[in-house]
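INTERNAL AUDIT FORM
Audit reference: QA-55
Scope: verify that the stored structure record matches its stored sequence.
Auditor: D.O.
Record contents follow.
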Amino acid sequence: MALRYLFSQMSLHCNRTSPLLQFMFQALPRGSKKYALEHLSGVRLCAQLPAPSVTDIKDTQKANSSASAAEKIKNFDEETKKKLKILQLEYEVMKQLGSFRIPDNMTDELWLEMLTFPTVSARKRYYRYLKKIEAAKLGRQLKRQQKLENRQIKEQDEPSQSKNTIFLFIRKSTMNSFYYSRLAHAMMFGQPIIIDMSFEKYMRKQDVHRLCEQFLMGYGSNKVHPNPFHFVLSGNQSNSMFQNCLDNTRVNKDEEEHFLMTNSDQHYLNLYPKEKLVYLTPDAPSVLQSFDHDAIYIVGGLVDKIVSKPLTMAKAKKEKLKMAKLPLDNYVRWGCGNKSLTLNQVVDILLEVKKGSSWTEAFRHIPQRKIRHLFKDRAFTK
C-alpha cells in the first residue's frame, strides 16, 4: 500500500517523463516493478524500451560469437597463424578452380573448425557439408520471398473481406499449450525413453548437427502424439557440441519451456533402476517381439556414417543391460540403402507400437526408398 501511495503521489506532481519518476522505477526490484506497472495506470515511462525482437536477439548472439572467434584468431601463435593462412590460400584456389563444392563465405568460427581437420579430403568433405547448408538456407530465403510476393499479388487482386464462418480460429500458441500440457503430464507420469548422448567423441561435427536435427524431428513427433514419451537426454554435457547446437535452436538460451524433457549429464544407471532398462541396438542377438509399457528403452544418440563398430551393443554388454533389436528382418524385405534407422524414425516406430499398432503399421515410418516389400498381417521368414 505504501508503494502504491508513493507512486500515486509522484504521478500527480511529476511529469510522465520526469527523471525522478524514471529513476525510482528503475531502482525498484523486479517484483515491485511489476506491481507498479499493474496498479499505476496512465503513468508512462519513456525509459521503457520495447522488447527486442527475435532477429535482434539472434544477431546479438551471432555478433558475440563472432567477436570471441576473432579474439581467438588474434591470439594465435605464429605457427598457427601460418597454418591458417595456408588453409585460406587453399580455399581461394579451390574457389577459383570451381571444381569443388565450397561455401561462398567463411566466418571466423568456420576457420577455427577447419583448423581441426588434418587432411585435404576431410576439409573437402566439410566444405561440401557447408555448401549444402548454405544452399538450403538460400533456398529457404528465396521460398520465403516468393511466398511474400505471391501474397502481395493476391491481396492486390482480391481485396480482403471479412468471412463469416462457424469454425473457431485456433491460434498456434493455444495448440502449443495443449501439447505442452501432455508433455508435462508425460514427464510426471509417462513412460521415459532415454537417448544416450555419450557417443559424441565418435562423431564429426556435421554428424552431431544431423543428430540434433533428428532429435528435433523426433521431439516434434513426440510432442503431437496423444500419449507421448518422457524424453530423457542422458550424459549430455553442458559444453558439448550437441548442447551448443540445441541452444542455437532457441532464441533465449535461459528459457527451456518449449523443451519439456529431462536434460541431464548423469548416467542413466544413476537415474533409473537397471532391471527396467532395455537398450535398443541393431546388433543385439534378441528381437523385440512386443512393446513393454513398463520398460525404459534406451536409444543411442549416434550418427554412424563413418563408424562401423557396434558401439551401442558393446556399451550395453559392458554394463550388463538387457538389449534388443526391432524385428525389421521379420517384416521388411529391404531394397536399396543400408538398414540403419535415424533417431526420429526409431522414435516414430516406438510411438506407433505404443498406441497399439502392429509392427507392419509402425514400419511405415521407414523411408520407402529402403523398402522393397513390407509384409502385412504376417511376418516374413527367411
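Auditor finding: record pair retrieved intact. The radius of gyration is 27 Å.
Action required: none
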